[in-house]
């Protein structure tokens, strides 16, 4: 459905994209994750033909978006990171404007405007100016505008940033419905839980390069991230910490807690408990932290997603 081949883009002396390539299947929910400045928005902007790359190729449904722009633009919708609405127009007027740009016939557009306003729970506010809307309501209309021409592919660049829980949950429901109906979705986010919840596959981008790609399970296996056993002790002191660290090198110590890192939780948990007991350390609590997308991301990039 989407093929990205050796994309490169520089801003003056800064090389934002360094020859990235990846493919997205029809109906797939693909997440693009990376810290700030990694190249996510540049990639999305090039894929949606907002930006022109210095070199490389983007194929949408087999068509090069720069040599066959009309064929490509008819089947893509774009939800930009910045709100792309006119504050002094009503929600309905905004939708009429954006729908008109896609040459949707008026009778059909009226029907679709009614549908998306209902879908996003804003029918009763359709005649209100966007300037009176909350941030979450503006985000909902922003997404609605991208769906009016019924695209087969939607690019969403951080669509839930800075919104209230009610709007976020409603947007989640819409996104899940779109995906279940077979829409191809390309999604950037700063929220790990969103990527874990929605994405079929994830590409991790850092310093303008795709450094890892795959399903969540594939990323877990490919990274050096380990599961963590966090043990809180009642009577921990330096002597006991030294004894514990002598038998378990891969650990760290903070206050009354010791963090044990392991690649084989089932086998090694009982060993750790036994050896802590032998060291005279009284265990108060044990917490298991499984490898998740956040730990995978940190192990691959050395950064938090919001860095």
Task: Please describe what this structure looks like.
The protein is built from eleven helices and 14 strands. The protein is α/β, with parallel strands linked by helices and 307 residues long. It folds into two domains: 220 residues, 3-Layer(aba) Sandwich (Rossmann fold), CATH 3.40.50.300; 65 residues, Alpha-Beta Plaits (2-Layer Sandwich), CATH 3.30.70.260. Helix 5 runs parallel beside helix 6. The two termini are 32 Å apart.
Structure summarized in a few sentences:
With 307 residues, this protein is an alpha/beta fold. It is built from 11 helices and 14 strands. It has 2 domains: 220 residues, P-loop containing nucleotide triphosphate hydrolases (Rossmann fold), CATH 3.40.50; 65 residues, 2-Layer Sandwich (Alpha-Beta Plaits), CATH 3.30.70.
């Amino acid at each position: 459905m989407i093929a990205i081949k050796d994309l490169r883009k520089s801003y003056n002396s800064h090389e934002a994209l360094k020859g990235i390539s990846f493919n997205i299947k029809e109906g797939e929910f693909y997440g693009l994750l990376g810290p700030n400045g990694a190249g996510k928005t540049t990639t999305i902007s090039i894929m949606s033909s907002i930006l022109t790359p210095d070199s490389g190729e983007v194929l949408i449904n087999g068509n090069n978006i720069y040599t066959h722009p009309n064929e490509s633009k008819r089947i893509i919708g774009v939800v930009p990171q910045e709100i792309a609405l006119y504050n002094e127009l009503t929600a309905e007027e905004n939708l009429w404007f954006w729908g008109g740009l896609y040459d949707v016939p008026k009778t059909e557009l009226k029907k679709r405007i009614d549908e998306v306003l209902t879908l996003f729970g804003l029918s009763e506010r359709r005649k209100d100016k966007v300037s009176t809307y909350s941030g979450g309501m503006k985000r909902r209309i922003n997404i609605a505008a991208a769906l009016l021409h019924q695209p087969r592919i939607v690019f969403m660049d951080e669509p839930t940033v800075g919104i209230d829980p009610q709007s976020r949950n409603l947007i989640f429901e819409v996104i899940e419905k779109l995906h279940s109906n077979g829409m191809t979705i390309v999604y950037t986010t700063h929220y790990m839980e969103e990527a874990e919840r929605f994405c079929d596959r994830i590409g991790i981008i850092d310093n303008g390069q795709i450094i890892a790609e795959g399903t969540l399970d594939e990323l877990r296996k490919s990274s050096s991230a380990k599961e963590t056993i966090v043990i809180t002790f009642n009577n921990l002191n330096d002597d006991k910490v030294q004894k514990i660290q002598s038998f378990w090198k891969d650990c760290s110590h903070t206050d009354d807690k010791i963090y044990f890192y392991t690649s084989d939780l089932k086998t090694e948990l009982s060993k750790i408990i036994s050896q802590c007991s032998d060291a005279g350390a009284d265990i108060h609590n044990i917490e298991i932290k499984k490898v998740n997308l956040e730990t995978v991301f940190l192990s691959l990039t050395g950064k938090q997603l919001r860095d």
